[in-house]
Design a protein that fits this description.
This protein is an alpha/beta fold. It is built from ten helices and 18 strands. It has two domains: 198 residues, Quinone Oxidoreductase, Chain A, domain 1 (Alpha-Beta Complex), CATH 3.90.180.10; 138 residues, Rossmann fold (3-Layer(aba) Sandwich), CATH 3.40.50.720.
Length: 345
C-alpha cells in the first residue's frame, strides 16, 4: 500500500510503498477514507516531540474509513461498513479506565504515535474500539470527530461542566478552539471567541459565538478588561486552545471569582499563574486531554442531527502528492483554513 512516512523531525513526510497490514485476532483492516491534519502531527515534524514508536512510522490519528477485512473472532463488523476510529485507544483495565477516565489510560495507544496511523491507504484497528458512522454523517468530513471535535467536547462537557447560561471565553479559533466555540454554544453557553485572525473570528460567529475579540484591537491587548466591559464580570470558564504560555495566562486572567481555566493547547514551556488569586478566589486551573470512548456515540449523534457541524469545518483536502502542503497551512496560520483532511484517493 501507499503511505506518507515520517522518518524524523525537520523532514517532510515521504510517500512510499509499504506492506499492507493484515488484521490479527480482534482487529479489522480499515480502508482510509480521510484523516484530519492536526497540530499534534506538526509537533512531531517541526518541534522534535518524540513519538512512542520510533520512526520510520506513519502519522495521522483522525481517521474515518470503511471496513476492508476482518480478523479472527470479529463478528460485530462486516466488510464495507463505514467507521470512525477514536484518536486514542484505551486498555479498559488500568486504574484510570476503571474509574471512567479512559482518555488518560495508563496504557493508552494513539494512532500515529504508539502505532501506525492513517496517512496511508489502510490501517489496523481494534474492532472493540471502532465506531459506526451512521447515515447523515459524511464519511470524509466525519473523520474530524475523532479529535478536532471530540477533544473540545470532553473539555467543555466533562472537564469544565459548562452549563446553559454560562459565559465562556475561547482563546484560539483554530481546528480545536473553533469546536470549543460550537460545543459550548450547543450546550447553551454564551461564548466569547478570541483570536488575532479576523477570518477565524468570522468562523466563530458562524458557529455560535456571541461576541468576538481581536487582542490586537483592544487597549494594550487586555482581553480581560475588554470582557469585563462586555459582560460586567469575568467569564465562568476560559479555554486555551493554542498552547502558548502568554495566552494561558491571558485566558486565566479572564475568569471570574470561582471560575475555571481549561488548558487544551500543548506547550512544553512554563506559564505564569498568580497563585494568590487561584487560592483566594477559589479558581480552578485544569488540563484536558482527548476524549473518553463513552462520549463518542453522543458526539456522533449530535453531528447526525446537526447540533454539531462537521462539513463546514473542513476547508480543504490533500492527497499523497501534496500532503506536506497541509502542514505549511498550519505553519503559516492560514486564515482560510480550519481543518484540512488527507484523502488517500
Amino acid at each position: 500500500m501507499k503511505a506518507a512516512v515520517f522518518h524524523g523531525p525537520n523532514q517532510p513526510l515521504k510517500v512510499e510503498e509499504v506492506p499492507t497490514p493484515r488484521p490479527g485476532a480482534g482487529e479489522i483492516l480499515v480502508k482510509v477514507a480521510a484523516c484530519g491534519v492536526c497540530h499534534t502531527d506538526m509537533h512531531y515534524i517541526d518541534h522534535g516531540v518524540p513519538t512512542f514508536k520510533k520512526p520510520p512510522m506513519i502519522l495521522g490519528h483522525e481517521a474515518s474509513g470503511t471496513v476492508a477485512e476482518l480478523g479472527e473472532g470479529v463478528t460485530k463488523w462486516k466488510v464495507g461498513d463505514p467507521v470512525l476510529l477514536p484518536a486514542v485507544l484505551s486498555c479498559g483495565v488500568c486504574r484510570q479506565c476503571r474509574t471512567g477516565r479512559e482518555n488518560i489510560c495508563q496504557n493508552m495507544q494513539m494512532f500515529g504515535n504508539h502505532v501506525d496511523g492513517a496517512y496511508a491507504e489502510y490501517l489496523l484497528a481494534p474492532a472493540k474500539d471502532t465506531l459506526a458512522i451512521p447515515d447523515g454523517v459524511p464519511l470524509i468530513e466525519g473523520s474530524i470527530i475523532a479529535d478536532a471535535i471530540s477533544t473540545p467536547f470532553h473539555a467543555v462537557v466533562n472537564r469544565a461542566n459548562v452549563k446553559p447560561g454560562d459565559w465562556v471565553a475561547v482563546f484560539g479559533c483554530g481546528g480545536v478552539g473553533i469546536n470549543c466555540v460550537q460545543v459550548a454554544a450547543a450546550v447553551g453557553a454564551s461564548v466569547i471567541a478570541v483570536d488575532l485572525v479576523p477570518e477565524k473570528l468570522e468562523f466563530a460567529k458562524m458557529l455560535g459565538a456571541e461576541y468576538t475579540i481581536n487582542p490586537a484591537e483592544v487597549e494594550k491587548g487586555r482581553v480581560d478588561k475588554a470582557i469585563k466591559k462586555l459582560i460586567g464580570d469575568g467569564v465562568d470558564v476560559a479555554f486555551e486552545a493554542i498552547g502558548n504560555p502568554k495566552t494561558i495566562t491571558a485566558a486565566y486572567n479572564t475568569i471570574r471569582m470561582g471560575g475555571m481555566c481549561v488548558v487544551i493547547g500543548y506547550t512544553h514551556l512554563p506559564a505564569e499563574i498568580p497563585v494568590s488569586k487561584l487560592m483566594f478566589f477559589e479558581q480552578s486551573l485544569v488540563g484536558s486531554l482527548g476524549c473518553r470512548p463513552v462520549d463518542y456515540p453522543r458526539i456522533i449523534e449530535m453531528a447526525r442531527i446537526g447540533k454539531i457541524k462537521v462539513k463546514e469545518l473542513v476547508t480543504g483536502s490533500v492527497g499523497f502528492d501534496n500532503i506536506n502542503d497541509a502542514f505549511d497551512l498550519l505553519r503559516n496560520n492560514d486564515p482560510k483554513t480550519l481543518r484540512t483532511v488527507f484523502i488517500p484517493e
